[in-house]
Amino acid sequence: MGIEEKLPSGFLLTTVEQAAGWVRKSSLFPATFGLACCAIEMMTTGAGRYDLARFGMEVFRGSPRQADLMIVAGRVSQKMAPVVRQVYDQMANPKWVISMGVCASSGGMFNNYAIVQGVDHIIPVDIYLPGCPPRPEMLMDAILKLHDQIRHEKLGVNKRRAQQEAEEQALQAVPTIEMKGLLR
């Protein structure tokens, strides 16, 4: 004898956070931002064989003002870093970032002064996607994980409370150097 039996059919029960999360995850618009060889794999993911249209992402936006997902595909040079930041700042809130490929995530094999050693030095990253270059299936998996993250994201006061709790837990965590375990 649950609540489903008390209500007439045709009713849907949910919270505002769950409804907003479902709407946000179902309408992501990625920005066109390919910097190197990973961009070819990103373009392949948008083609007919892999069909991102299933997830409501069939159109890669040319303007950052129309996008809410930035997929940084490839290595970011020091010269390109201010442009990456400017495009990120021009995107509408809420916005998310996927770092695609080992070069975008950590500089890859290019450990020199000309390449940024991880795009997270410039903008906040939500999902890191490894590989050189990562396959289209891997990008789709990262997008699905981002969908799950967006769907469970809190709103308003609950979001601020969750951020404060996460920060307090991080401050109370035992430093790595003091941890005891199998490797020490």
Automatic annotation (TrEMBL):
Assigned EC number: 7.1.1.-
Pfam families membership: Oxidored_q6
BP term (GO), one: electron transport coupled proton transport
Signal sequence range: none
Binding site for [4Fe-4S] cluster: C37, C38, C103, C132
Subcellular localization(s) per the UniProt record: Cell membrane
GO terms for MF: 4 iron, 4 sulfur cluster binding; iron ion binding; NADH dehydrogenase (quinone) (non-electrogenic) activity; NADH dehydrogenase (ubiquinone) activity; quinone binding
Annotated Gene Ontology cellular component terms: plasma membrane; respiratory chain complex I
Cofactor binding mode and count: Binds 1 [4Fe-4S] cluster.
Protein family membership: Belongs to the complex I 20 kDa subunit family.
Subunit structure: NDH-1 is composed of 14 different subunits. Subunits NuoB, C, D, E, F, and G constitute the peripheral sector of the complex.
Stated name of the protein: NADH-quinone oxidoreductase subunit B
